[in-house]
């Protein structure tokens, strides 16, 4: 047996077979001769075929020294009462019988037949080596388990210190065994268990700074008495430190998320979308209404008309907890599209970062995914996107788990998707899925009455950011700006305002800093190419005339009406009609 359990050791395993049985009528002389010759320890006496007792070698020798010795027979000597055990009985039982009866040997029977003797010496010479071998085995065991093992006795003295513990704490067995554990670890959990006698399991404990162990400690109870405590422990410092760092990072992230949300609330709310024109107020109303639903929204409009501004405002007022994540479909190389959108698992493909990467769609989970310039999405990606949107499930590239999605999709394009569908460059099914609600943003030239508002806003914004004093702008310049067609829409206007402010002099925006194409334009010439219809042209002309007149007359409506040669009520009506609310 590889592992001897001494408790289960049987008498037959260590008994001696060098015994002799003599009939009781044998002469003592012959008996002594025999014993001496065969180096025997005792003689077993048989009387009428029955074992009646035994006589120890020492006793026989003593008697052989007396005078009457030559005539004596074996039955003349008082024999000791033998104790019998069966071959299958344990050594432990033999030991108990010997102790209880104060004898130094027991006789072993097999099926009523004497087969051996178990003497104290057998126990000493045969059992103890086995115990020693077991001890060596135990040592091998606690030196080779990955965990650190420590056993203390009921006085708190270290009895066992495994190699795992040596490694964990850098303390050698020779330094600690036999010493009080408290001297090394004043706060050791084992000492608590020694007091409480209660087991503790899987506790994260820090016996030293920056060292964390997962420890279990059990009281060792024998016959109802505490004899010591055993502990096993595993180093979890790295994991614990990492998870602590993760917790910190998460806390920081939560904090930043709240901050970003607050910032966005201010910056990207509908309240901050500039526009008093009828068409704009109508568009803002529509967007506001759809914001709180989960419907997909497609925002169309020329470049620079505020598509992203609207998308953010919709997300902001949707109350969705998650993030607003924008993907510019025209800016991602086709080969990176999939990994950028879906993310990938570590080792998903050559060249992939070994740690894997989370995709934009997954980041937007719980929030809003903004697919900007959706018209530029490659066809094969359109198919993959459609599948994800339909199934509401996402699988990372190279992954095998699907992640369930709750994403609100807002897309934007300056292209005509319907034409693209007809031409076969945009999937029709995806088009319908994205275009549940359509918001069309007007070009700036379609709401020229908003130009002064934007100019004012951008001047103030730019000056605030650059710690400048807000310069004045003459009605003349404002007029020119309103007359221009702004093909780059609000973005172009914003850049232009920045340019004008930068080159302002004496706290005033200078007319000669206007570029030729704006400055040169004669107020009265109309560039028909820029106009959409006669109604549009009339609208613009009327708005411009009202602005001019109001400026000229210092915002006095009565004088302005006179100047324009129209009744005052007509002027009121037109101001209201064109949403020139700043004059009301
Ligand atoms: N209604 C608005 N109010 C204030 N700023 C706006 C508005 N619309 C657009 N802008 C500004 O104009 C620029 C272009 O807007 P953006 O949303 O990026 O346009 P698009 O996505 O349609 O090209 C941005 O600097 C944005 O802040
Ligand atoms: Mg954009």
From TrEMBL:
Matching Pfam families: AAA_lid_14 (PF25601), CBS (PF00571), HTH_8 (PF02954), PAS_9 (PF13426), Sigma54_activat (PF00158)
SUPFAM superfamilies, A to Z: CBS-domain pair, Homeodomain-like, P-loop containing nucleoside triphosphate hydrolases, PYP-like sensor domain (PAS domain)
SMART domains recorded: AAA (SM00382), CBS (SM00116), PAS (SM00091)
Biological process annotations from GO: regulation of DNA-templated transcription
Keywords: ATP-binding, CBS domain, Coiled coil, DNA-binding, Nucleotide-binding, Transcription, Transcription regulation
PROSITE patterns tied to this protein: CBS, PAS, SIGMA54_INTERACT_1, SIGMA54_INTERACT_2, SIGMA54_INTERACT_3, SIGMA54_INTERACT_4
Protein name: PAS domain S-box-containing protein
